[in-house]
């Protein structure tokens, strides 16, 4: 149950935001409803997400696995639910997405994919637990540009996951494509 109201007065701005969300995702996203309580926060979030959507140096599967591993580490059910839907539509292998909560025991991943998820979880720990060895392992296969994008993607997912979890957002039904659950 959300810890903040998801309903708003039906202003032109609210109607426009809801229309845009329905058009793109088929429904009004709960995080958008939360951010509508503060238009400056909403605007900043939309600008950040729009800019991040243009990051393209990192392989989409590596990006997806890093984001999903971070969301799982935080325990954000909304993020896992929506993340699976989003990455499913970006043609990331569904078997890899489904196995994220148990990635250490799954055989569907390459060594690089495992290193990416380990890095994402280490970044997400409080305080961060990233080691020089983890970074060097990634640098064997990623350019500096890709490593920076990976780090930024995990940081952005931490922003999302921690915000949504703190505000009590839960799965919104995107998981009709999967059965992912947060891992703590």
Keyword list:
184 residues, mainly alpha, 9 helices, 60% helix, elongated, disordered C terminus, AhpD-like, CMD-like, peroxiredoxin activity, Carboxymuconolactone decarboxylase family protein
Task: Describe the model.
With 184 residues, the protein is an all-alpha fold. It has two domains: 12-52, no CATH class; 60-177, AhpD-like, CATH 1.20.1290.10. 60% of the residues lie in helices and 0% in strands. It has nine helices and no strands. It has helices spanning 12-25, 30-35, 39-52, 60-74, 77-88, 94-98, 111-124, 132-139, 144-166. Helix 4 packs antiparallel against helix 5 (77-88), helix 7 (111-124) packs antiparallel against helix 8 (132-139) and helix 7 (111-124) packs across helix 9 (144-166). The longest helix has 23 residues, at 144-166. The two termini are 19 Å apart. Mean pLDDT is 92; it is low at 177-184.
What is the fold's blueprint, element by element?
Blueprint: H1 12-25, H2 30-35, H3 39-52, H4 60-74, H5 77-88, H6 94-98, H7 111-124, H8 132-139, H9 144-166
GO molecular function: peroxiredoxin activity
Pfam family, one: CMD
Domain Carboxymuconolactone decarboxylase-like: 50-122
Report the helical percentage.
Answer: 55-70%
> What is the H-and-E element order?
HHHHHHHHH
CATH third-tier fold name of the largest domain: AhpD-like
The fraction of residues in strands falls at under 5%
How many discrete domains? 2
What is the CATH homologous superfamily assignment of the largest domain? AhpD-like
What kind of sheet is the major sheet? none
Which stretches are poorly predicted, pLDDT < 50 over at least 5 residues? Answer: 177-184
Which CATH class of the largest domain?
Answer: Mainly Alpha
Structural class: mainly alpha
Radius of gyration: 17 Å
Query: Strand tally, please?
Result: 0
Number of contiguous helices: 9
Shape: elongated
- CATH architectural grouping of the largest domain: Up-down Bundle
Distance between the termini: 19 Å
Rounded mean pLDDT is: 92
